[in-house]
Design a protein that fits this description.
The chain is of the alpha/beta class. The chain has twelve helices and ten strands. A hairpin with a 4-residue loop joins strand 1 and strand 2. Helix 7 packs antiparallel against helix 8 and helix 11 crosses helix 12.
């Protein structure tokens, strides 16, 4: 990792990843791209880290998008799929992520904020998909249809005009707004609320949302049940109801074998994405857990074939 992207692994299980090229408006140049790839990999591999917050240095820009100078120098046509570190596309993450948007999030800046699971924005932030202004395209915006209404999405993409943080909140792109000096505190508060949940239940909940956006209703319901088996079979599922306390989960004090990344499994079973690697977090499992895991993968694969 380089100083273009800073990584703060906190003792409370939260990782803060900061784009650190304010003089370049934190644009997605080569150094930031490399640093962000490394940061996401470090977050995913560290079992002590359970939530990540992505933000930018300064108050002017979260990320102003791609490096236009580099695009000109490279005579870039179609960007390679692995050019940008985009969760859910070029990389796979199995833990919750929060974008803390501190300034403008234009083009690729919108892309990496959109790719996070949740979004907190400064009241001074602005969002725009500006590709039409420079003759480029924004295929990465396709998942936006699951977040905001179609006609609003159409207007944003076709006009390239910025929207305010307040408007982004109103249409459902942003979860919470904060004054500029309270942005990180608000993001940390949201992360702490996630940490209050049992780890396996949080994992299953996140996978349920991912499955629901990838599949039809019936298939998603069945696959989500399989994704939840780890939570139901865990010690937390027994201890929580017995104690009746939200702070009683053993998972708060240890990170056990976590549920597989079934969102990645969907891609593995999809004929159009069969070349992608299957990733299941790399944790060791005992024989009983492994049997559940293998059974779940097989049944989800069949659901996708039948869907």
């Amino acid at each position: 990792m380089n100083d273009a992207v800073l990584f703060d692994a906190r003792d409370d299980g939260i990782a803060i990843i900061t784009l650190n090229r304010p003089d370049a408006h934190n644009a997605l140049g080569k150094e930031i791209r490399a640093g962000l790839f490394a940061a996401w990999e470090r977050f995913e591999r560290d079992p002590a880290l359970r939530v990540a917050i992505l933000t930018g240095t300064g108050e002017k820009a979260f990320c102003a998008g791609g490096d236009l100078k580099e695009m000109v120098e490279r005579q870039l046509t179609v960007p390679p799929r692995d050019m940008f570190p985009v969760p859910g596309d070029s990389i796979e993450l199995s833990k919750p992520t929060i974008a803390a948007v501190n300034g403008v999030a234009f083009a690729g800046g919108w892309m990496i904020a959109q790719a996070c699971d949740l979004c907190v924005a400064s009241t001074s932030a602005k969002f725009a998909i500006t590709e039409v202004k420079v003759g480029r395209s924004s295929p990465w915006a396709a998942p936006l249809i699951h977040m905001i209404p179609q006609r609003i999405m159409m207007e944003i993409i076709l006009t390239g005009k910025p929207i305010t943080a307040q408007r982004a909140y109103e249409i459902g792109l942003v979860n919470r707004l904060a004054e500029p000096d309270k942005l990180m505190a608000t993001a940390l508060e949201l992360a702490a609320e996630i940490l209050d949940g049992a780890p396996l239940s949080v994992r299953a909940g996140r996978e349920t949302v991912m499955l629901a956006t990838e599949m039809g209703r019936s298939a998603a319901l069945q696959a989500a049940r399989h994704a939840s088996e780890y939570a139901y079979r865990s010690d937390d599922a027994q201890e929580g109801p017995r104690s009746g306390r939200s702070d009683a989960f053993p998972g708060h004090h240890r990170i056990a074998c976590l549920a597989p990344c079934l969102h990645s499994t969907i891609q593995c079973y999809s004929p159009s994405e069969s070349h992608l690697p299957q990733r299941c977090g790399g944790q060791r499992r005992n024989p009983a857990e492994l049997a559940v895991h293998q059974n779940s993968l097989g049944r989800i694969g069949q659901l996708l074939v039948d869907a």
